[in-house]
Design a protein that fits this description.
- The chain is of the alpha+beta class.
- The chain is about 20% helix and about 35% strand.
- The strands form three sheets. It has an eight-stranded antiparallel sheet with strand order 1-2-3-4-8-7-6-5, covered by helices on one side. It has a four-stranded antiparallel sheet with strand order 9-10-11-12. The protein has a four-stranded antiparallel sheet with strand order 13-14-15-16, covered by helices on one side.
- Strand 5 (about 125-130) and strand 6 form a beta hairpin.
Length: about 375
């Protein structure tokens, strides 16, 4: 009998231990579980009070919460770790994120602007760059709690876009044993771009887990964002997640059943006038369609023109119109400079030039240009 009792007590004790462990696991799970509402409340602390919630993405270990500030025409994306409930990264981007044709601010002035915007910076570097005829200051910085970068308009001092990452950056070890064994940032980027078949790397971080190093890469291609993991040792690339890119955000409600564009008043980034580019926009305004500055999620026709003219300053845009192609909204048009005509396609959400063709105009061959080739808005 005593054996039976002892055995029964042992079983009961074992069951009790299992129940206790299960209770601890369940308690921990419920404690760590994060809802979207919680994520939104946390994220609100990292964006202006005038910003409103737009959309969100949920992944296995994080939330990405997006906001837009209509007053300041700026978008935000806040990344929050589900387990720790801590903000990992905050990205911002002005709707009009173009640089300027002139430089008025000094490096010292730009440093002060960035230090004021991100309190606590202990180390900062500034570099003036020029792309497609427009200048920008590229600023890198770090503090005891975060690190990041920002692009600053060298004429107005506006922070065009920024990325803040909280915590300490992981660096590749430089001791003799490990040196050269791991992929560089550039090699990891190239591996991800090759895997995706194109696109550009929006963000890259080196992480370490259980003694192993790997790169987390966010890549944007065709209005989609892809999250890749690249093993820093082997170079193996794995796709973790994909979703529509917020800063290439499209609002399908702005299109009717016939694919006609009818801007609404909700969702996405506010349009803008593209004032940072070349002001010589020709006389193509009548071809721009319904592209007024509404909260549509698409750049305005004026900004699309400025993007083209930043690439070919002094050109005349002879035609531009908005189309929807395979779910992507595109500005298509023609421009003329000297003896050349250009055909262009611009992603109407991101402002990225996705199609570009240059042809020499042959004035001696009437077959090359018939009357139908001339647009009503041709600027003589």
């Amino acid at each position: 009998m005593s054996k039976f009792i002892n055995k029964r007590n042992g079983i009961i004790a074992a069951i009790a231990v299992v129940l206790i462990i299960a209770a601890i696991i369940l308690s921990t799970t419920f404690t760590q579980a994060m809802t979207l509402d919680e994520a939104k409340e946390i994220a609100k602390k990292y964006v202006p009070a005038t910003a409103t919630f737009v959309t969100s993405e949920e992944e296995e270990n994080k939330f990405e919460v997006m906001f837009h500030d209509d007053k300041n025409e700026e978008g935000f994306e806040v990344e929050i770790n589900k387990e720790t409930k801590q903000v990992k990264k905050v990205e911002s981007q002005l709707d009009n994120d173009l640089g300027s044709k002139t430089v008025k601010l000094t490096e010292s002035e730009v440093k002060n602007i960035v230090k004021k915007a991100f309190d606590g910076i202990t180390s900062i570097s500034v570099n003036l760059t020029k792309d497609n005829g427009l200048y920008e200051y590229e600023v890198n910085f770090k503090s005891n709690d975060f690190y990041g970068n920002a692009d600053v308009n060298p004429e107005t001092g506006a922070i065009l876009e920024s990325t803040i990452k909280y915590g300490t950056a992981v660096t590749i070890p430089t001791d003799d044993q490990n040196k050269g064994d791991l992929l560089t940032y550039k090699e990891a980027e190239d591996a991800a771009i090759k895997k995706a078949g194109g696109g550009f790397v929006k963000d890259i971080d080196l992480e370490r887990k259980n003694g192993n190093y790997y790169y987390e890469i966010e890549l944007v291609k065709d209005n989609m964002e892809y999250d890749y993991i690249v093993d820093a040792k082997t170079g193996k690339v794995s796709l973790e997640h994909e979703h529509e890119s917020y800063f290439d955000y499209d609002d399908d409600d702005d299109w009717d059943d016939d694919d006609h564009y009818n801007p609404g008043t909700t969702g996405g980034n506010s349009g803008n006038t593209g004032s940072g580019g070349n002001s010589n926009t020709g006389n193509a305004g009548s071809n721009s369609g319904n592209t007024s500055n509404n909260n549509s999620g698409l750049i305005s026709a004026e900004k699309a023109k400025s993007i083209v003219l930043a690439k070919i300053p002094g050109a005349t845009i002879t035609k531009i119109h908005l189309e929807k192609d395979d779910g992507i909204y595109i500005y298509e048009g023609d421009a003329r400079l000297g003896n050349y005509e250009y055909e262009f396609e611009i992603n109407a959400s991101s402002g990225v030039i996705i199609g570009w063709d240059k042809d020499r105009i042959d004035y001696d061959d009437d077959d090359d240009y018939d009357d139908d080739d001339y647009d009503d808005d041709w600027d003589d």
